[in-house]
């Protein structure tokens, strides 16, 4: 493969300008113009953008004996440079190897430039075989009437699925990343997790407390100097959780709902003296109050019966000193 074709491209430049002028009531000449330049470099990923705006007003007073000249101008520029060393790396890269899909484990790791945005996608599959996995089994009741369980080796398990990670970045102005996993976690043979009132074993082939689907996303931005914010969320799919008797009459396997935990945080940094800074932050955790609603109560509650986000909706305010 000729990597010159991968890192170089035909560069184009677009230059646009619009202007208007006139005179309002023969008393205020004006001129307004806007311009935009979009220039792509010959190296993939290199771009230069420039936007301009200009407004000129020349109102006159006292029968044109007094004239004021008012001017306002604005310029916006953005430069993005190609990855450092890309030309040298391409010169020594193995010409028989695919530059986009080159992971030996079979995963797909692709990075590209989308205008002024840098993007990366990673797609991979996984398979894990487990022998003699640990399981909890009843071994009787102690003198105080509490059920005792012992961790023993079970038959085996298989965990397999696919994972997707993606990232989209525009410098510090905006960074978005997400990940999602779809998997199956199963024992190779039914495992006993408890007994019913008649002493019959209760079994499962699905590994407990392990969702088949879960994911996350984060968005961070620093739109202006000294201020940044972040928005993040985690998704936890449905899973099975053992619920032991006490608050309820008999042991049963519960199927949990799925949860989406959304959080937002704002930070502002004050420069106090030299390198001493004060950062003030505030935000909300678990905005949708996605929280377990069926916790046990009372002295006979199942203390191990909990799942999902660890805290309900929480508003916080804080600060820290930075050096």
Primary descriptors:
Maltoporin, Chain A; 2 helices; 20 strands; 3% helix; mainly beta; elongated; 10-stranded antiparallel sheet
Write the layout of secondary structure elements.
Blueprint: H1 4-7, E1 13-24, E2 28-40, E3 47-57, E4 60-61, E5 66-67, E6 70-80, H2 86-92, E7 108-114, E8 117-131, E9 134-141, E10 147-153, E11 156-170, E12 174-195, E13 201-206, E14 213-224, E15 227-236, E16 240-243, E17 252-255, E18 259-273, E19 276-285, E20 314-322
Helix content: under 10%
Radius of gyration from the CA trace?
31 Å
Taken in chain order, the helices and strands follow as: HEEEEEEHEEEEEEEEEEEEEE
Largest sheet at a glance? Answer: 10 strands, antiparallel
What is the CATH first-level class name of the largest domain? Mainly Beta
SS class: mainly beta
| Mean of all residue-level pLDDT scores | 87
Q: In whole angstroms, how far apart are the ends?
A: 50 Å
Q: Catalogue the unreliable spans.
A: none
* CATH topology-level name of the largest domain: Maltoporin, Chain A
General form: elongated
What proportion strand? over 45%
Number of domains: 2
Q: Using DSSP, what is the number of strands?
A: 20
Assembly annotation? single chain
Second-tier CATH architecture of the largest domain = Beta Barrel
Counted by DSSP, the helix tally is 2
The H-level CATH homologous superfamily of the largest domain, spelled out, is TonB-dependent receptor, beta-barrel domain
How would you characterize the overall build of this protein?
The protein has two helices and 20 strands. The model has no long low-confidence stretch (mean pLDDT 87). The two termini are 50 Å apart. It folds into two domains: 77 residues; 223 residues, Beta Barrel (Maltoporin, Chain A), CATH 2.40.170. Strands 7, 8, 11, 12, 13, 14, 15, 18, 19 and 20 form a ten-stranded antiparallel sheet that branches. The chain is elongated. The protein has 323 residues and is mainly beta. The longest helix has 7 residues.
């Amino acid at each position: 493969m000729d990597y010159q074709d991968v890192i170089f491209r035909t560069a184009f430049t677009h230059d646009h300008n619009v202007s208007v002028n006139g005179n309002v009531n023969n008393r205020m000449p004006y001129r307004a113009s806007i311009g935009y330049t979009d220039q792509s470099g010959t190296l993939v990923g290199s771009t230069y953008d420039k936007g301009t705006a200009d407004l000129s007003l020349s109102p006159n007073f006292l029968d044109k004996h007094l004239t004021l000249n008012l001017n306002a101008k604005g310029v916006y520029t953005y430069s993005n440079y190609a990855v450092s060393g890309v030309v040298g790396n391409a010169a020594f890269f193995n010409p028989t190897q695919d530059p986009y899909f080159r992971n030996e484990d079979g995963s797909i790791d692709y990075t590209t430039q989308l205008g002024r945005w840098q993007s990366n996608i990673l797609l991979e599959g996984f398979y894990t075989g487990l022998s003699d996995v640990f399981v909890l089994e009843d071994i009787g009741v102690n003198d105080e009437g509490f059920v005792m369980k012992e961790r023993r080796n079970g038959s085996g398990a298989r965990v397999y699925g696919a994972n997707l990670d993606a990232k989209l970045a525009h410098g510090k102005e905006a960074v978005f990343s997400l990940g999602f996993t779809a998997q199956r976690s199963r024992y190779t043979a039914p495992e006993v997790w408890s007994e019913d009132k008649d002493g019959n074993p209760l079994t499962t082939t699905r590994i407990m407390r392990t969702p088949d689907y879960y994911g996350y996303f984060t968005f961070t931005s620093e739109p202006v100097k000294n201020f940044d914010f972040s928005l993040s969320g985690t998704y936890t799919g449905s899973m099975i959780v053992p619920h032991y008797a006490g608050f309820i009459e008999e042991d049963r396997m519960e199927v949990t709902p799925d949860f989406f935990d959304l959080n937002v945080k704002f930070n502002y940094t004050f420069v106090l003296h030299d390198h001493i800074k004060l950062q003030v932050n505030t935000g909300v955790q678990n905005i949708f109050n996605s929280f377990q609603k069926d916790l046990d109560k009372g002295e006979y509650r199942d203390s191990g019966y909990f799942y999902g986000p660890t805290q309900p909706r929480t508003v916080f305010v804080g600060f820290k000193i930075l050096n």
